[in-house]
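Hey L., structure's done. Input below.
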Amino acid sequence: MRLILRILVACTIAMLVFAGLAAAWIWWGDWPATGPIGKPDDPELVVVLGGGNLARATVALQLAERFPDPPVVVTGDGGYQQAALRRGGLDPARIVVEPNATSTLENARLTAPWIGKAEGQIVLVTNDFHAPRALAVFRTTHPDRDFVVATEASARPFSDWQAEFRRRERAAAIYYLLRHRINSFRNRRTCLSTANTTPGTPIR
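Output:
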């Protein structure tokens, strides 16, 4: 009986230590790393992930100008990125809207009808702090597809908004690893910065 009690106490202490270390890392950690790696190469599809700020739309517009053929799928957006793309002059005929996604995992699952048809490179557009998890989720959901991630340029020191969302992203990466077995940490240097934009005001 004493042995079982000791084991329970040891397990409880270990869990508390892990929770404390995780909380400290979420608050003060330096992940994800930033920095451009790779580049889009004649993509067949551009997927803009909803949320974040309007830097995502700016990056998407730059990609659309550089690559005039691929459709631009906007997923889980609520209309913000879509409206910014239209204001930026993107041909509405190129815009495809997936309105129902409420998470990165749903972004990946609900864009399957378009991703499944794209045999070439697919560019995911998001903010730099979200890039590693977005790439991990889409690669896990569609392992036979070729993804790269395009983000806004990012420089230190981070704004208060950036710092807060980076903390949220560290928590989300842990959650996705434990809940969905999706490892965002292996993709820490696979994000691609394509735009000289500065982070704008968060839209939601």
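The helical segments are 2-28, 55-66, 80-87, 104-110, 112-115, 131-141, 160-180. The longest helix spans residues 2-28.

-- N.
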